[in-house]
Amino acid sequence: MSIFTVSESQKAIKFRLGEVISTDYSPGLYFKIPFINDIKKFDARVLTLESKPERFLTSEKKNVVVDSFVKWRVKDVSKYYTTVAGDVVQANIRLDQIVKDAMRGEFSKRTIRELVSSERDAVRDILIKAASPVAVDLGIEIVDIRVMRIDLPSEVSSSVHQRMEAEQSRVARDYRSRGAEAAERIRADADRQREVLLGNAYRDAELKRGEGDATSAEVYAQAYGKNKDFFGLYRSLTAYREVFRNEGSTVVLEPDSEFFQYFKKSK
Amino acid sequence: MSWNEPGGSKKDPWSGRDQQDTPPDLDEVLRKLRDGIGGLFGGNFGHGGSPGKTLALLAGIPLAIWGLTGIYIVDEGNRGVVTRFGKYTETTLPGPHWHLPAPIESKAIVNVEQQRFIEVGYRSGGGRQQNLGSVPKEALMLTQDENIVDIRLAVQYQIKDARAYLFNVYEPEKTLKEITESAERGIIGKSTMNYVLTEGRSGIADEIKQEIQEVLDKYEAGIRVITVNFVDAQVPEEVQSAFEDAIKAREDEQRLKNEAEAYANEVVPKARGAAARLLEESEAYKQRTIAKAQGEAGRFKQLLTEYEKAPEITRQRLYLDTIESVLQKSNTLMLDVKGGNNMIYLPIDKLQRQSTALDIPRESEGVSASVADSIDNSAKNANRAATLRGRESRGQ
Questions:
Q1: pLDDT computed for residue A84 by the predictor
Q2: Which of B70, B178, B308, B377 minimizes the number of CB atoms within 10 Å of its CB?
Q3: What percent of chain B has pLDDT over 90?
Q4: Is the dihedral of CA A177, A181, A182, A188 positive or negative?
Q5: Is the dihedral of CA B318, B320, B325, B330 positive or negative?
Q6: Which residues pair with B155 in a beta bridge?
Q7: Which long-range contacts (CB under 8 A, 24 or more apart) does B285-290 make?
């Protein structure tokens, strides 16, 4: 009689001369008969199948680089033992084939945009559904399948970069020309305001001057109208003074002008 | 098994606060040990009585030493997880504890309060460097609008259930990282680039946190996510200059507008000023013109009154006064050429040059102009002015 333990993170299988006799071990202490009984223990925790990045074609015939992981754990120990000999690596290889196949199919039905944004969860559900029957055959349980990276291959990335740059330069140009537009509007508006202000002011000023002219004309007319005869004299004399106001004007007179009537007589 | 929680193996280790700090008592340890071993092997071991008393004592010493190896201390912030032959028995709180010694029971101590973190998209290298070592494979991802963004995340977490943490998931930390990347890419993939880079940041971090937690709970990983932080969210280095230029362009837009505003702020008030000047000037012109008219008209009317009293003499006087004043200032030339055909040479240019030399500015006009003459000209002029003034006063 000898003993063996099954720990909390393990599942165990007991053979009698190569034949499976018990798989139902909860953690704890158990007995076996040496040489007749053989015990194999497996990791009962959630294990990971981590796929390497691989290229998939999308429905637009574009390549995307995808990696994913599958989380699984041993469910049926005896099946797990018989199908993959309890080997994690073998189980992973089998799972990988199934999942990759399903992924290829699903990716080819969808565009990059759908895969990246809206369809991620849908693809995950389909993959889980596709892999589950196979997992049951392997004696394991799929906990989760998740797509991690969906990236563009490096040669495509550079063209994405170029597109992004072009977009940004469009945005930049848009901003600048909008700025120029707004600035032009503001300037033009200011110029208009100036013209209008000055124009209105000129109009009002002319009207004002007109008022002055009119009023003064009225005043003159009233005064000068009292004696047109005298006005003629007065205005003429004023005009003479004005005209000859500067010294140095040369006046040529004839001796018989009215001014000289006495001058002549005395001769 | 522990002293503080006798028989409490089913008790929730997280809410059990009834810790007693009684120090371990050797007798009790031995009694418990006897019970434990007795329970295991079913015999009435240790209850033999007097004949084996010395024997029991002799056997007791190594037993006691073996028993002492089961003493362990759980530090504050930790939990002890005890398994018996691999089967989970209990989780112990901080303090001194005892478990059945190896190989029957064993313990694992897990720190449940330490805040651990993982870095996705970069490696800080432990230190607080400014230059975060980017890991492009993790950091670059596609957005909904098929742009590429560069995201660096830090996830802080704690172990919330030591038992689950130990037994349920192989490599929990690696799993957490895988989940984080997957959740992050899923959520970024549903957002547009602008949203990710600007107002979406905190919302996205919360969403990622929530999704990570959901998945962790599904795996029963025993981990609690405290926070998810965007360490950095940018566009890829290759296109950064274009993005910076776009930001600059936004500034330029504002600058152009501001410059134009400045122009407007200068032009319009100036125009208002000029307009006000025009108006004031016209008002001045109006007032001046009217006043001048009134003045001249008044003067005329006053003179007219006198004229009407003695028209002949006044007319004569005004005429002579005016002619006198005009001829005074002029080079007068009298020619008796009536009927003659003589050609007379007048040196007009010479006369004019002379006159310009004599020319002086005059401020006042009319009759009173001669007053100014009298002040700044020769005595001859002054005499004439005196006579003029005399005549003027007589005339009035």
A1: 87
A2: B308
A3: 33
A4: positive
A5: positive
A6: B118, B228
A7: B285/A208, B285/A209, B285/A212, B286/A208, B286/A209, B286/A211, B286/A212, B286/A215, B287/A212, B288/A212, B289/A209, B289/A212, B289/A213, B289/A215, B289/A216, B290/A212, B290/A215, B290/A216, B290/A219
Of the candidates A212, A224, A241, which has its C-beta nearest B285's C-beta? A212
Report yes or no: A169 and B240 within 8 Å, Cβ to Cβ: no
Residues in chain B: 396
Q: Which of A2, A6, A46 to mutate to test the interface with B (most CBs of B within 10 A)?
A: A46
* Least CB–CB distance from B301: residue in A164, A189, A226: A226
Chain B (22-41) residues lying within 8 Å, Cβ to Cβ, of chain A:
none
More confident residue, A75 or B131: A75
Mutate to test the interface with B, among A3, A8, A119 (most CBs of B within 10 A): A8
Identify all chain A residues contacting B253, using CB atoms and an 8 Å cutoff.
175-176, 178-179, 182
Which tens digits make up the pLDDT trace of A87-135? 889 889 989 998 999 999 999 999 988 888 888 889 999 999 999 998 9
The string of pLDDT tens digits covering residues A166-196 is 988 999 999 999 999 999 999 999 999 999 9
d(CA B140, CA A151): 8
- CB of A214 within 8 Å of any CB in chain B? no
φ, ψ for residue B151 (rounded to 5)?
Answer: -115, 135
| pLDDT at residue A238 in the model | 86
Question: Low-confidence residues of chain A, pLDDT below 70?
Answer: 248-249, 255-256, 263-267
CA atoms within 13 A on the CB side of B197: 18
The whole-number pLDDT of residue A264 equals 57
Structure tokens at A235: 């205005």
Q: How far is B223 from chain A (nearest CA, A)?
A: 14
In the numeric block, the tokens 């009317």 are attached to B301
Q: Cβ contact (<8 Å) for A27 and B325?
A: no
Q: What is the mean pLDDT of chain B?
A: 77
Tokens representing A153 are 């291959």
In the block, which residue shows the tokens 């000037």?
A: B281
pLDDT digits (tens, 9 = 90+) for B39-65: 554 444 445 445 567 777 788 888 888
Residue in chain A lying closest to B286 (CA): A212
Starting at the edge strand found earlier in the chain, the sheet holding B78-84 runs: B87-92, B78-84, B105-111
Entry field: residues in chain A: 267
Q: How confident is the model at residue B335 (pLDDT cuts 50, 70, 90)?
A: low
Going by pLDDT thresholds of 50, 70 and 90, the confidence category of residue B226 is: very high
Q: How many CB pairs under 8 A join A and B?
A: 353
CB spacing of B330 vs A202 below 8 angstroms: no
